[in-house]
């Protein structure tokens, strides 16, 4: 960890990217994905350049299907010093798969990514945060060391299978061999307001996001941020507008994301989960 007495930034922020394209949605079947044009390379390069400029690192949760179709992009992300983790193969919600289907999905995607990069894949994030209790058991069995799918969210149309867990606010041991990196969500009474990124990041003005992040860090000494390449792509086709909430969550504020991320990378030292782990030995709560 860089130790600098002059530092005004109290803690690093964990920067994560869910590497998928604009059409990789559970609302479309895998067979239909081929009909749509790839758009993720340009916004991914934009993210990589912004991270490089600030000498920052991130964890990229890569979809196996993307790794198959864009192997050079995944290799480049790895070559530029970022951690490659898994977002599964086909972006299917965990709680809509059988245990056998999920096991095959995570095993196949882990092996694809490891063959591409030559590095061990240690982390997993469930598509749309759809993790389940049995899914965690299988992650552990398949050799993953951490999960990052716990995000209490009162705006979600379907609740995650991890609804039984209280978010302690910082990493904790969720299974004997598995650490959970939860996503910040502010709680007002029984209401959970996501604060970690994605569509919610586009929705909140930057100053408001920073205020919430600061308050979270003050209480938990931890913050994890996530974004998708399509969150920076204001020209993307707009086909997910079935409800006004899905339309806002998907398309609001696309033009401002780039600038907001630049400001965030200036305000915080951003790092990957892998680097955070090295810096934070002993910081993970047990129990
Ligand atoms: Zn995703």
From TrEMBL:
Instruction: Output the InterPro entries linked to this UniProt entry.
Output: DUF3473, Glyco_hydro/deAcase_b/a-brl, NODB_dom, PuuE_HpPgdA-like
Q: Which GO terms describe its molecular function?
A: hydrolase activity, acting on carbon-nitrogen (but not peptide) bonds
Q: Which residues form the signal peptide?
A: none
Domain NodB homology positions:
30-287
**UniProt xrefs under Pfam families:** DUF3473, Polysacc_deac_1
Q: Domain of life here?
A: Bacteria
Gene3D superfamilies linked: Glycoside hydrolase/deacetylase
Q: Which GO terms describe its biological process?
A: carbohydrate metabolic process
Instruction: Cite the PROSITE patterns for this sequence.
Output: NODB
Q: What is the protein's given name?
A: DUF3473 domain-containing protein
**Annotated organism of origin:** Paenibacillus paeoniae
């Amino acid at each position: 960890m860089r130790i600098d007495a002059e530092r005004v930034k109290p803690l690093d922020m964990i920067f994560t990217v869910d590497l998928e394209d604009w059409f990789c949605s559970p609302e479309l079947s895998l067979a239909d994905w081929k009909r749509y044009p790839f758009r993720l390379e340009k916004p991914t390069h934009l993210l990589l350049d912004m991270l490089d400029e600030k000498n920052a690192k991130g964890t990229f949760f890569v979809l196996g299907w993307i790794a198959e179709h864009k192997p050079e992009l995944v290799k480049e992300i790895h070559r530029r010093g970022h951690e490659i983790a898994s977002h599964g193969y086909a972006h299917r919600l965990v709680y809509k798969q059988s245990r056998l289907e999920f096991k095959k999905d995570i095993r196949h995607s882990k092996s694809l990514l490891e063959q591409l990069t030559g590095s061990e894949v240690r982390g997993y994030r469930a598509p749309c945060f759809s993790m389940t209790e049995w899914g965690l058991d299988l992650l552990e069995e398949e050799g993953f060391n951490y999960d990052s799918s716990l995000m209490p969210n009162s705006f979600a149309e379907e609740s995650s299978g991890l609804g039984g867990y209280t978010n302690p606010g910082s990493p904790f041991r969720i299974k004997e061999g598995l650490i959970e990196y939860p996503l910040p969500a502010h709680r007002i009474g029984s209401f959970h307001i996501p604060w970690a990124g994605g569509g919610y990041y586009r929705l909140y003005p930057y100053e408001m996001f920073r205020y919430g992040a600061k308050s979270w860090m003050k209480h938990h000494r931890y913050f994890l941020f996530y974004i998708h390449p399509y969150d920076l792509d204001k020209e993307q086709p707009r086909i997910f507008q079935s409800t006004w909430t899905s339309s806002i969550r998907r398309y609001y504020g696309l033009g401002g994301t780039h600038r907001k991320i630049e400001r965030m990378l200036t305000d915080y030292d951003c790092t990957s989960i892998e680097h955070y782990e090295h810096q934070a030995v002993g910081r993970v709560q047990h129990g």
